[in-house]
Amino acid sequence: MWCARDAELLRSVAAEGLLPQLPPLPPLAGDGGASPLVSEVYMTRAPSVGAATEEVMSAMQGSAIATQATQAPLVHSGRPDGGAVLGAAAAAAKAAGEQRVALLLCGLDDGGKAWCAAARQTEKATGVAFDVHVERFEL
Amino acid sequence: MLLRLPVPEANPLTGGRFKHRPGQFVFLNIAAVSSIEWHPFSIASCDEKQLSVYVRCRGDWTSKLHDVAAAAPAAATLPVRIEGPYGDFGAHVNLQGDACRTVVMVGGGVGVTPMLGGAVKLLDEWANGRPLTRYPNDDPM
Asked: Is ipTM strictly over 0.85?
């Protein structure tokens, strides 16, 4: 899950050749794809999903992400709903007979506090434990 | 800006090999920018011979690095001192074990770089038999 303010960073990362190091993104959830990876991009300043999709597609032309950008729920506008995301992850883990979910955070505006709070709430509500790792760098 | 750095063959002080994994971080010192400043960067990707770090221009040091790189001839090389690697991205959440089959990675801005390396590593482990639960599907795979 990648949150970016605008397309500038996406364009830079794509242009610098980082993304091709990821294997081709898998088909999205519900399509019977074989890979367990589901990628989502959140354009936090985009006014709509359409605008966000356009930004992502223009920034990452030729990448697997751009190819799939029109397929919901890959691209979103605004910020992710941490509670909803973690609730779904907890449900997926529980349905698979698991009691733990790993949550890895890096580069978030508030240092990941909102996600940590969402993890605590989800843990109380579902009984599924979250193992949280936060990367913080001082500039 | 992407820095592609050749992996040191051996630590000049200890003789030990430089062992690194995606998601760890290194401190970089580039004398052409500042001889005394060291700055931490996540390893975005790596192989045995090269590691890559992504640098976003956000402060004086990174802006100056950008200027130095832009002014250098195309084939120029820039001496870089590397300290590390440090950290073990996700180790204490069992990213390298099989305790967590469901893994959620959230990267903000340039914070996506350690996630890229982590995702590649997870997929590699999955291809070699590590079970992972597909989000938001509920079937372990």
From this structure: no
